[in-house]
Amino acid sequence: MAMSAPPPRRGPLSVEPLFDDLMREIFLRLPPHDPRGLLRAAVGCRSWRGILSDAAFAREYRRFHRAPPMLGFFYDQFHIERRRAFDERYWLPHFVTTATFRLPAYEDRRDWRVLDSRHGLVLFYTPAMDADFVVCDLVTGEELEIHPDSDCEDIMWWEDDDDNYRFENIRCNAAVLCGRDRCDHLNCHGGPFRVALLGSDEYGQIAFATVYSSETREWSDMISAENPNTISNWGHSAVVGNKVYVPCLEDDSVVEYNMGEQKLSVMMPRLRNRTRTSRTLVSWGWRTACCCLHRW
Ligand SMILES: [Zn+2]
Predict the structure, then answer these.
(1) DSSP E strand stretches across the chain
(2) What is the Å distance from ligand 1's center to 140 Cα?
(3) Which domain of life is it from (predicted)?
(4) pLDDT score at 277
């Protein structure tokens, strides 16, 4: 009885490793703004899926393309529903994709307002819920509720919160960011994060700041500094290292919050074109949060 031939052994000169290396180089060059290419390759075969799901490939891909692509942005829209007895008014967040990749957009979350987005995280203001803030990780889908403490509540007021003009000078601004020290944000999804809250008192003379840590689940002690210019809750915040910057309403001054050293100061940047820069800050107001989502 003839026996079937044993399967051929992979010898030292097998071309498979070379082929994988070649495919790896090709995958590295797939454009990051079109994630469909990576997804299609991952379902192509087990070998390709192994290459693409390797954490080392993700880091290499990030380094190869340097800056992460902007995959879209969030904005809020105010809705009024006409009813017989009363008009129902509420906010809805929307996500506009700028790539061939559709995110969970949280578009069904009534009265959720987008405050900020960074490092694949989105910070929502949710006054209709038990917790006033919710942070969502757009990659893992995790949602974490954050309760403000009593000091936070003293500076928390966004326009359209209510019609109580007694507190017309109270304004606040917030930023969400990755919480890992010296993080390169190559693969930190699901990791710790921080939420910085800055605001002005009801007299518009003092700025306050505090930061929330997802690791301790606590807010830091509130610090303050004299600032005659009310903090803007329309201007988009900026983060550089351990510092958060928010614009003021009356002029081009910017409040700097050093979260590492717990210092608060007011800066007057020298702007070449003051009008244009100011408009830019306003146009990226709190209702529009840019989202640079890292997929790696
Ligand atoms: Zn990070």
Answers:
(1) 72-81, 88-97, 113-118, 121-125, 133-137, 143-146, 171-178, 193-200, 206-213, 218-219, 223-226, 238-240, 243-247, 254-258, 263-267, 288-291
(2) 14
(3) Eukaryota
(4) 39
